[in-house]
Amino acid sequence: MQQNQTSDDQHLFDLWLKGDPQGFSGLYDKYKNRVFGFLVRMTGDREIAEDLLQETFLAALRNADQFDRSRSFLSWLFGIAHKRTIDFFRHAKVETEHKSDAETAVGSKIDAPDQQLSDQNLRALINEAVETLDPLQREVFLLRELGGVPFKEIAKIMDCPINTALGRMRLALKNIRKELKKRGIDGVQ
Amino acid sequence: MACSNLEETVLLYSSGELSEKEKKSFESHMSICDECREEFDSYRREQERFFTCDVLGEVPSKDVDKEILRVCSDARKKVTGLGNMPVFLKKTIYSLTFFVVGFVVVGYFAMNTEQSKQSNLNVVLENELFDSTNNSQKQNDNTAIINDSDSLNDTNRFFSKNRGNLDQNGVIPVDLKNK
Ligand SMILES: [Zn+2]
């Protein structure tokens, strides 16, 4: 499965390099929701995330020659998305503002608690739990679960030892479970 | 939790980052440790139900899709024959190639002219020398020079020398005259 995914991506990437528009649009359609989800949850702002999504794909296009084919394309793309996010926060210095914006935005989306747990509600609850995470835990969690990035690469991307990345992931899972329990979800049966 | 130090092993096992040996040894541990097996199972269920692209991903608007595809295809068009190299690098490579080829061509002709000038000068010097010696010696020397040119197999020099001698001796080529 993972092997097929990789060779599919390599094929689309080769088309992309040859200038075939199907290569780019293929990879874009396949991964835009994952990358956009990461950017929305890291910045807490859809508009900013839209700009960063464009920057991420543009940077990937411009640095296509730096893509190491032994790695997964999605991991590489998430590495670029991470850099765009860091650059954004460095330049804008609005991290705390957007974080609090995001919390209210996500909180307001949740429907009445006595309603049956529809997919839409579940989605809102999980994302609310993710939003409560410390940004470093949140990033490790999203890189792993949305980007499928291996811990070894997460450590490289976030410039920390692998044990730190693993520790952040453990805390992220613990905190998400705690938050979900508060909202009446006690694990998956 | 007795196996708390194995929580990280559960993560690495799930992400497929354990070596074959570590993987085997953790699997045999899970077969006897309920705690670790339960931790692994619940994480896997969470991944299947909670941590999916449908739940954590976001769909950009159609306008954003259109704009990104437009901007990226414009950027793509700027990339020409040399794959994905930056445009300025390609321009540099093209200009360098142009100049190198130019230098080789100009250099080749310049060297040719220089050599024929040098050869003409040699002939003049040689002829001055010949004038100071007697006729029979002159004949021998002249032959020697021609033979020398022959053995060097330097067509330019040989040609220039012949031409020089032709100028000196009218229309008869030197080798014919020697016959
Ligand atoms: Zn155990």
Gist?
Chain A is an all-alpha fold and 189 residues long. Chain A is 76% helix and 0% strand.
> Sheet with the most strands of chain A?
none
Q: What is the overall shape of chain B?
A: elongated
Helix content of chain A: over 70%
Task: State the largest interface.
Answer: A-B, 47 and 40 residues
Number of domains of chain A: 2
Q: Mind telling me the C-alpha Rg of chain B?
A: 43 Å
Average pLDDT confidence of chain B is 70
How many strand elements of chain A? 0
Task: Tell me the span between the first and last alpha carbons of chain B.
Answer: 112 Å
- CATH homologous superfamily descriptor of the largest domain in chain A: RNA polymerase sigma factor, region 2, helix turn helix motif
- Approximate strand percentage of chain B: under 5%
Work out the number of β strands of chain B: 0
| Terminal residue distance of chain A | 25 Å
Question: Could you walk me through the main structural features you see in this protein, from its secondary elements to its overall organization?
Answer:
The complex is a heterodimer of chains A (189) and B (179). Chain A is 76% helix and 0% strand. Chain A is mainly α and 189 residues long. Chain A has two domains: 1-107, Orthogonal Bundle (Rna Polymerase Sigma Factor, Chain: A), CATH 1.10.1740; 114-189, Winged helix-like DNA-binding domain superfamily/Winged helix DNA-binding domain (Arc Repressor Mutant, subunit A, Orthogonal Bundle). In chain A, helix 2 (21-43) crosses helix 3, helix 2 (21-43) packs across helix 4 (73-92) and helix 7 (135-145) packs across helix 9. The longest helix of chain A has 23 residues, at 21-43. Chain B is mostly helical and 179 residues long. Chain B is built from nine helices and no strands. In chain B, helix 6 crosses helix 8 (155-169). Chain B is elongated, with a radius of gyration of 43 Å. In chain B, 11% of the residues are buried. Mean pLDDT of chain B is 70; it is low at 138-174. The interface between A and B is large, with 47 and 40 residues. The structure holds zinc ion (ZN). The site of zinc ion has 6 residues of chain B, from helix 3. Zinc ion is lined by residues 3, 6, 29, 33, 35-36 of chain B.
